[in-house]
Amino acid sequence: MINSSLTQLGAALRTKKISSVELTQSYLDRIARMNPELNAYITLNPEISLAQARAADARLANGNADPLTGIPVAQKDIFCAKGWLTTCGSKMLHNFVSPYDAHVITQFNNAGAVNLGKTNMDEFAMGSSNETSHYGTVKNPWDVSRVPGGSSGGTAAAVAARLCAAATGTDTGGSIRQPAALCGISGLKPTYGVVSRYGMIAFASSLDQAGPMGRSAEDLALLLNTMAGFDERDSTSLQREKEDYARDLNKPLNGLRIGLPKEFFAEGLSGDVAKAVEAAIAEYRKLGAIIVDISLPNTKLSIPVYYVLAPAEASSNLSRFDGVRYGYRAPEYGDLADMYEKSRAQGFGAEVKRRIMIGTYVLSHGYYDAYYLQAQKIRRLIAQDFTDAYKQCDVIMGPTSPSTAFKLGEKGDDPVQMYLSDIYTIAVNLAGLPGMSIPCGFGANDMPVGLQIIGNYFDEARMLNVAHQYQLATDWHGRAPQL
Amino acid sequence: MRRNKRFMIPYRARFDKALNPFMSLSLADVEKVARLARLAMTDPELQAARDQLNNIFGLIAEMQAVDTTGIEPMSHAQDVAQRLREDKVTEANQREAFQAIAPQVENGLYLVPQVIE
């Protein structure tokens, strides 16, 4: 059962081969056994989960079930869920029981899915290894001495270890795709504006986007059908016709033009990752695709641009955490300013403080034009690179991450090294494009390698088609870690 | 408030590294940033932050060499106009629920240290 697709699980639930309560309990048992080592979940609430499962069983019995009714889905701890502790990986929110639901949570609740628990993450989604979480680092299920990636590392580890049927993530600079790659699962960051950010704790608002993480492209399509849609409570939510993201899954790939950016295969890419990605491209040729060499000349600039814009937006967004209305307040303080300064100093971890300081500096008087405005101008050049590239190809492919999962603690003390590992994913967020990662083999030390598929705006259905056809022809996505 | 000369570099000079050494932050700069960001920091923390921020700004410096004359800044992922909504109440009053999770409240008010004598 734990290796079944969401479609198979849905069918088993509808034909009463298994109840949602049984399915939910079996996952909770598995979590109780394995989570102490993997630390993929921050919060479990079996009472709420099982109550949702009972309600789902009643709905299944009534015959008005949705495709996800009764299916246990884990939620990244960045999504506010009513009655659930919602920490965002931070001590700042160690006691924050959300009084309301994020739009994404509401969508899953309306579909009758079971909230299985809140997954671990880098603090406020700032990190690429899950080592900045206040609640302890997550272990990679393929090798527990290695990182799962980040910031959606708990979600990626939970999906890979079969500690949930599927889960959610968010992606500001690669936080869905990189952990998906490092844990050997599939993950999709939709076009900016497709999934509402309401109730999703903000990091960098012009880049943040929620998306599904699961074991196959087919599963992702079902999840995205539930997550996507207009929501007036998010002013950047896009008003578009509702679409079925699974509609094109079975289209053949004959004549598909795949662009390979030369910058993604240059210096800095590990040999083992290059080999697996090249083998995947060869597979696509067999499936009828045409390979086109392209260039994204400003790729390298995406890192400096991102590390100006994201911290700038973060420094503004995180100013709300002041110890007054919710969250952590220092136990001792003098005047109001002292209360703010001590609460924030004690409530935030080192990486979050670092980014708040970068953001505060680049937005401060006298530096705004040189840093922030210059970064916004280069952001346009980066987006224009993609627009030019899509005149020659339908999708862009390359590695998701320059290497496979690194050792815990290996890059922890060197922020710059950590930032450089986001080189292939960040530009996609800056441009607002959809991107995904699917497993495409194994590299050194038998660690998973991810293939990145970048689509044009609103081309999620085609990307899922491209991924699904590969997953029909290969079985990398079906491999599971030995636990 | 003490004025920091580095924050007053003329516009043009900011793009000339010879005239403008701002890639290297002083301890006073970091102290000022920490104060603006409302983060209490000890001296060893300030020193560590300075070194790390200087490394990060070394990475960011690459940006300064790019000619962006005439390029419109891209402030958002989609070039769409901000959607406006009707000015009407859409949220129900949930004061009790919100105050239940506050660090300190009294008589329906959030308590903070006295700010007016």
TrEMBL record, chain A:
GO CC term (a single one): mitochondrion
Record carries keyword DNA-binding: no
Alphabetically ordered keywords of this record: ATP-binding, Ligase, Nucleotide-binding, Protein biosynthesis, Transferase
Enzyme Commission no: 6.3.5.7
Keyword Lipid biosynthesis among UniProt keywords: no
One Pfam family cited in the UniProt record for this chain: Amidase
InterPro entries (UniProt xref): Amidase (IPR000120), Amidase_CS (IPR020556), Amidase_dom (IPR023631), AS_sf (IPR036928), GatA (IPR004412)
Catalyzed reactions per annotation: L-glutamyl-tRNA(Gln) + L-glutamine + ATP + H2O = L-glutaminyl-tRNA(Gln) + L-glutamate + ADP + phosphate + H(+)
TM region positions: none
Domain Amidase: 22-464
Alphabetized GO MF terms: ATP binding; glutaminyl-tRNA synthase (glutamine-hydrolyzing) activity; transferase activity
GO biological process: translation
Family: Belongs to the amidase family. GatA subfamily.
NCBIfam families: gatA
Designated name of the protein: glutaminyl-tRNA synthase (glutamine-hydrolyzing)
Gene source species: mine drainage metagenome
Classification lineage: unclassified sequences, metagenomes, ecological metagenomes
UniProtKB/TrEMBL annotation, chain B:
Pfam families found in the cross-reference section: GatC (PF02686)
GO terms assigned for molecular function: ligase activity; transferase activity
Alphabetized UniProt keyword annotations: Ligase, Transferase
Listed InterPro entries: Asp/Glu-ADT_sf_sub_c, GatC
Protein EC: 6.3.5.-
Protein name per Swiss-Prot or TrEMBL: Glutamyl-tRNA(Gln) amidotransferase subunit C
Database matches in HAMAP family: GatC
Gene3D superfamilies reported for this sequence: Glu-tRNAGln amidotransferase C subunit, N-terminal domain
Keyword Transferase: yes
This protein's record includes keyword Transferase: yes
Organism of this sequence: mine drainage metagenome
Gene coding for it: gatC_2
NCBIfam families: gatC
GO biological process terms held by the UniProt record: glutaminyl-tRNAGln biosynthesis via transamidation; regulation of translational fidelity
